[in-house]
Amino acid sequence: MSALLNKLKKGKVLVVGDVMLDKYLEGKAERLSPESPVPVLTPLGEESRLGGAANVALNVSSLGSKVKLLGVVGKDLSGEEIKDLLKENKISNSLVKSNLSSITKQRILAGNQQLLRIDREDKFTNKDWIKTKENFKKEIAKYSSLVISDYGKGTLFNVQELISLSNKKKVPVIVDPKGDDFSKYKGAFMVTPNLQEFSKAVGGFNSETELEKKSKLLIKKLSLSALLITRGPEGMTLFSKNNNQNIVKSHYPAQTIDVFDVSGAGDTVIATIASGVASKIDLNQSVELSNITAGVVVSKLGTSSFSLDEIIPFLTGSSTLDANVCIKAIQRAKKERKKIVFTNGCFDILHAGHVSYLKEARSKGDLLIVGINDDKSVSRLKGNGRPVNNLENRIEVLSSLQCVDMVIPFSEDTPLDLIKEVVPDVLVKGEDYKINQIVGSDFVKKTGGKVERIKFVKGLSTSNLIKKLNKKN
Questions:
Q1: I need a surface site. Which of 44, 354, 369, 374 has the fewest CB within 10 A?
Q2: Is the pTM of this model over 0.90?
Q3: pLDDT by residue (tens digit) across 334-359?
Q4: For the chain, which domains are there?
């Protein structure tokens, strides 16, 4: 599953919709006003975050996919803040500047308790829409998926027009809907309502059977390829057409992460799915990943995004990412008291001996980190003609193993520097090494870890396999 994170870098997502600024004024309230029975707030700090369609774009960027944001902001301080935050997060954008106010939500907090929310919003003009549509026409053909982030704030005058233009360019459209009437989203690839939004759109339901029936009817009525209903603590339910155009139901239980604030969870879900679709990743796998990313976001206060190192510990399967991201994820896992196991090798031609070895290594802790020699270091160690498989292919095979949690390449002849960064609880190597011959053993023991040896399956080695192949040739 998490090997898919690398593929997301290939995705190109266009986001259009209601761009917002979410402001948070935090303070403490320890007494009531003598003038009225309301709390007196002592301000402690203020923070601004990207909201609405801008938060969707931020989440897409967090996954590593390319993204561009289209929408409308005002010629005001909030509009400037939005532009600054987008620049800070390196998010490309073409925002129309309206004479009306930027959409702004000001939240007043005492500790973690929200006391008040002040919304500033104007319905944008048809002139703003025409400029937005012009920007859209210039950009749509450059992207592999489109997110329509509809908060009903007035940016999107004619959603059908955007869907039609996208379909002509064969760009799948994923919609975060608003309102009771979903007919305006007809022809979209996918719509992602929450349970309440879905219920209003279909006139309610009284059972799971009725929910399923009405979901299938909605897909047919709107000519959708898929419908995803987000159900809070109950998880997510996906209805999607298979190769035979039959509608299939799949359910994803909620991740077991503490729910702190559901703000922005829908943004995260649609951003993850759009990135997956743009990267040609299977829809079910994209939804599964969105379930994880949303689970991380709801554990935070307010409208939030995530970083890759936050989601790696929740992934089933292996991860091969930037070394710095992996190290951050390992550090996070250690804070959660997870036991880190490390091993290394060339893993040129993966065989049954390797798989058996890696399974046993994984059994010694909670996360198995595999250091893998890059191509140049393999050549130095093994000689001309090696590796048989290049680094990318070797990583792909290792990453497919359930027992491997992270794969980190290194360019040195030994993994000592990487071991010092990982600081594993258990260092594992084959039984053909004595403990004092294992690179990093002294360091691991000094830092309170263990060094263990694992038996190899007799007769299985990459070198022997190559010799057999050469004899046959």
A1: 44
A2: no
A3: 887 889 999 999 998 888 888 999 99
A4: 4-306 (3.40.1190.20), 323-472 (3.40.50.620)
